[in-house]
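Ticket #4471: complex job returned nothing on first submit. Input attached below:
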Amino acid sequence: MSTDKQEREPLFSTKNRKLLTNPLNIDNPITVQVLGICSALAVTAKIKPAFVMALSVIVVTTLANLIISVLRNGIPPRIRIIVQLVVIASLVILVDQVLKAFVYDVSKQLSVFVGLIITNCIIMGRLEAFAMGNKPWPSILDGIGNGLGYGVILIVVGFVRELFGSGTIWGFQVIPEAFYELGYKNNGFMILPPMALIIVGIIIWIQRSRNPELIEEK
Amino acid sequence: MYSNAYIFRYAGLMVILVATILSSAAMLLKPLQERNEAIDKMQSILSASGIQNVTADNAIELFNDYVVNMIVIDDNGNVINEFKGAGKENSEAFKINLKEQLYNKSVNRSFKLPLYVLEKDGETINIIPLRGVGLWGPVWGNIALKSDFNTVVGVTFGHKSETPGLGAEIESPVFKEQFPGKKIFNDEGEFVSIGVIKGGVEKFPAEVQRHNVDAVSGGTITSNGVNDMLKNVLESYVPYIQKRG
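Support reply: We reran it on our side without changes. The output follows.
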């Protein structure tokens, strides 16, 4: 029985905590693993869609990680990618149906992004790299962590783009009218997708220069 | 290793299970979803005619209060169905599938179109529902015309999947506020529709300004879609408008 005790670790052991916090920093899915860039470009012109997208991705990564982790010993390796895809796609369709039935306004806001979640490489990346080989609880933490890491970057990029591109935050005007009268103009380039890439690039640059672990040797 | 038989059994079972879950979810939630869609359509119609504060809760009630007639017209401009009683959300005009009818039009088959007549502050407002294609998917909306069937009172637009910040800006007040006061017929009584053009409408002569609005910057294809949608749908109502005199 003593071996059983050794294997059991506290719910929030250092290792498990790292699963949550690493994706926010040195293992960030967008800035370090460079996954999920497509949707980061597409949905960050405004904060609100970025936020809802982040929330939906957290829900889907967490549930998909949990389901795959529970099933991991029965999934035949030869069709594992198909199984993963079926799980993700079904979850996304379910989320979409529920949103349409109960919060129609939000579902209208999301429209295209719900479908985009299926194509998000982060989700399948985590299933393949983590949930297939780990127990359910760490898999849930890993899902939440990666969803959060993705969401944080999305919201930061959305914040910068909405502020300078539209002069608003969450749809509310924050740059006073007086500025516009003095000749200030919204930067139209900010709302175009290339600017998202540049902002993500700047975030990567800052993160790498401040974090010695991420500096590659020449 | 897993045998082929196991893999087939696994895949088969998975597919059946997933299909059951998804189809039962779709069937259970369908009535709620359809109700939401109908309410959304009513809100859009009411808001095009400038009626404020329509919420999901009072939409059906307000819709029945304001709308006085639900008309169905055919492609020759004849009225083939009218509905003036209560329960307008169940009338034929409300249930017409615009996508289907516009497809019939595009392949030169006969078609029928809905027209909603509202009365607000003693004025008659005619609402024409719109549908077309944007960049990534369908765009739609409603255009409200005064009783002369010429001057625009207001518009609403919606879209399935246009890019936020770009094409999706057709929903923004800034874009929609350009429409009231525009005319769909010129002085000679010829149909010209309302154009969505690039380069700043205010730089053009007054005659052009009366029939055009500014496109959304960065949303050229969506703007063109709105332009084509207005032209395509409004022109289908011209026989009816001319028959009225």
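The interface with chain A takes residues 2, 6-7, 10-11, 14-15, 18, 21-22, 25-26, 29, 32-33, 36-37, 39-40, 56, 136-137, 158-161, 163-166, 217-218 of chain B (CB under 8 Å). Closing as resolved unless it happens again.
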